[in-house]
Amino acid sequence: MSEPDEDRSKLVANERSKLTATYVNGLAIALFAVGGLAPMFARRGASPGDVGRSWLTLSISLLC
Question: Where do transmembrane segments lie in this chain (predicted)?
Answer without folding.
Answer: 20-42
